[in-house]
Amino acid sequence: MTEETEGKCPFGFGDDAEPGADSPSTHSALAPAMSRDMLPTLVKTSIEQGADGQQTGRCLCGAVSYKFLKPVEKVFANHDENSRRWTGGVSLTIMVRASSMEFHGWGRLVHYASSARDRQCFCRLCGTSMFVRHVAPAAMDGMLSLSAGTLDDFEGMKLTAETYIDRKPDFYSFKGDRRVMTEAEVEEMYVERPKAG
Ligand SMILES: [Zn+2]
Q1: Which residues, including other chains, have CB under 8 Å from residue 170's CB and lie 6 or more apart?
Q2: Which of 18, 140, 150, 173 is deepest in the core (most CB within 10 A)?
Q3: Which domains are assigned to the chain?
Q4: How far is the CA of 150 from the centre of ligand 1 (A)?
């Protein structure tokens, strides 16, 4: 367990956060070490389905809602143990940079530190598994693996890759061909490398 206590939002939002209190300015002020692109834009009003012609989504109870600022279409199927235990099976996720999203209800999320590099974020009211926030160094830093099932509309979405394929239980499999990645290949993405130049 890291210094980020289980169940506590590392940004300081949690039990005492009032709805609407999670403005971007207080958010970043509480997390001065974090780069701007690790944060989504936080908004005070609920995001309606299809708002501004963008792809949107929400949790089961609607306390948490979001909007993508850029179109997304790629869905990953993840067969690792954390995904299994968190979702009850394979997780279907969209990899997106936090800064390319808008969120309402961030303060209603529990940020559970499942490892030093991952925060499993779920609605504290209805329990919906919303996303995994990657806080590790390297290419994954600042990325969210957002649960594809929380989208309002699935038009144009494509299953494009399967991760941790060597961890997949035998009792299920997906039809068709797509990119597959082993655990070792996924781990490579978390390795910090010196910057060129
Ligand atoms: Zn909810």
Answers
A1: none
A2: 150
A3: 24-188 (3.90.1590.10)
A4: 10
